[in-house]
């Protein structure tokens, strides 16, 4: 029997764990789910005889290493900063490691050790990054194999709210890590456009003018932190344009630009929130920072601010010392929540322009996935299923790759994308 350790049982893990447990009998698997909160693990296993729940404090070296040592493969759903502890254990005990998080410098330094141990560390194996890489590389390699020369690559992806659940002025509800939502874009963005390198600062990143159509719906986008790093990984050095972005509703972008202009994502100053209403905080923050001229007058933004309680003089925040960023996160989690009947939606679009036989062509490939409810979300589905599929294909010998990788090679993307299609995660291609 093959042992799989899933470390972390948060929102994005539900489809991952269910898929592994559903296939445990036929594939001879046992799944251990470990989380800092035992109840999270117990709930995800839901009494399945092929699963075991464990309480895990990642800083408990003995318990952590005990769980890794008995596993054949480890899937880390922990916060990104904690992956490295599992990575060290996986190298020590020669275990494969999968995660949806970005490859960081700490794990890159382990590349030689990973190869020497003849194990696979597969990073960026979720939605974005993950499905975006796999679907893009399928298109890129197919175009190149057919004699096309790619001159422009644009990739867009967003976790959104489904139309039937879109009932607030932000046109958004939180379906993943809220800390990532409030901190998105703070590092600015770098990308290539019409042959020039563009560096956009945080205060200019959110522009409602950046728009794209997907299935007759209009979205706005903002550029991701560092698109340039993927030019090498995708081997698209000759492209005039290369950019990866995040999709949002145009009104969301307008509102978030106002949030940024008012320094409401600041993480340097702390305010005492005990006895302070959201309206008190908002006025105090604006007055102390001399931001009166930045106050919005757009009716859409005023409605958005009212919706997240910036003008509410009622219930006090009472969270002790908080930064404006933490207060904003608290208010968003309170007001932009997915209710039990709500559905989220994932939208992804690749736009690839290429030259062939003297003519210019444009291929667009889009994906739309709608969640079932606030637990079985589209976000959880598209983050978790690629990891689950890859794990089972590594254990049964279908994927034999070793070393440190992201899923940009055919051995991974052909297998995983084929299985995803069977599960309803399927792209539609338009050739122009």
TrEMBL record:
This protein's name: Saccharopine dehydrogenase C-terminal domain-containing protein
Top-level taxonomy: Bacteria, Pseudomonadati, Bacteroidota, Chitinophagia, Chitinophagales
Keywords: Oxidoreductase
Domain Saccharopine dehydrogenase NADP binding: start-end pairs: 4-115
Gene3D superfamilies: Dihydrodipicolinate Reductase, domain 2, Domain 3, Saccharopine reductase, NAD(P)-binding Rossmann-like Domain
Domain Saccharopine dehydrogenase-like C-terminal: 126-424
Keyword Manganese (UniProt): no
Domain of life: Bacteria
Xref: Pfam families: Sacchrp_dh_C, Sacchrp_dh_NADP
PANTHER family: ALPHA-AMINOADIPIC SEMIALDEHYDE SYNTHASE, MITOCHONDRIAL, SACCHAROPINE DEHYDROGENASE
Keyword field contains Oxidoreductase: yes
The organism of origin for this protein: Pinibacter soli
């Amino acid at each position: 029997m093959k042992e799989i350790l899933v470390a972390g049982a948060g929102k994005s893990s539900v489809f991952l764990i269910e898929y592994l447990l559903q296939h445990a009998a036929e594939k001879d698997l046992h799944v251990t789910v470990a989380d800092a909160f035992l109840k999270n693990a117990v709930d995800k296993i839901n009494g399945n005889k092929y699963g075991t729940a464990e309480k895990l404090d990642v800083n408990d070296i003995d318990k952590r290493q005990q769980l890794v040592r008995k596993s054949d493969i480890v899937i880390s759903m922990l916060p990104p900063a904690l992956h490295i502890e599992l990575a060290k254990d996986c190298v020590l005990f020669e275990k494969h490691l999968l995660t949806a998080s970005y490859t960081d410098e700490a794990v890159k330094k382990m590349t030689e050790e990973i190869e020497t141990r003849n194990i696979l560390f597969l990073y960026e194996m979720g939605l974005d990054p993950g499905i975006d890489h796999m679907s893009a590389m399928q298109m890129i390699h197919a175009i190149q194999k057919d004699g096309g020369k790619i001159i422009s690559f644009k990739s867009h992806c967003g976790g959104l709210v489904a139309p039937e659940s879109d009932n607030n002025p932000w046109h958004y509800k939180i379906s993943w890590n809220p800390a990532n939502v409030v901190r998105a874009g703070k590092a600015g963005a770098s990308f290539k456009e019409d042959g020039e390198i563009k560096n956009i600062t945080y205060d200019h990143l959110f522009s409602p003018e950046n728009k794209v159509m997907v299935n007759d719906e209009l979205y706005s986008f903002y550029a991701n932190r560092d698109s340039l790093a993927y030019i090498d990984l995708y081997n698209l050095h000759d492209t005039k344009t290369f950019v990866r972005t995040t999709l949002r509703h145009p009104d969301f972008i307008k509102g978030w630009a106002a949030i940024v202009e008012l320094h409401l994502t600041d993480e340097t100053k702390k305010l005492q929130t005990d006895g302070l209403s959201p309206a008190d905080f908002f006025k105090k923050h604006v007055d102390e920072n001399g931001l009166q001229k930045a106050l919005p007058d757009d009716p859409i933004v005023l409605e958005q601010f009212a919706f997240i309680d910036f003008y509410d003089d009622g219930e006090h925040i009472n969270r002790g010392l908080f930064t404006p960023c933490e207060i904003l996160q608290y208010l968003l989690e309170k007001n932009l929540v997915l209710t039990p009947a709500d559905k989220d939606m994932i939208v992804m679009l690749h736009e690839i322009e290429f030259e062939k036989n003297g003519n210019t062509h444009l291929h667009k490939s889009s994906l739309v996935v709608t969640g079932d409810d606030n637990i079985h979300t589209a976000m959880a589905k598209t983050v978790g299923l690629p990891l689950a599929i890859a794990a089972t294909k590594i254990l049964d010998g279908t994927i034999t790759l070793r070393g440190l990788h992201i899923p940009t090679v055919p051995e991974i993307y052909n297998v995983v994308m084929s299985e995803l299609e069977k599960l309803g995660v399927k792209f539609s291609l338009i050739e122009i």
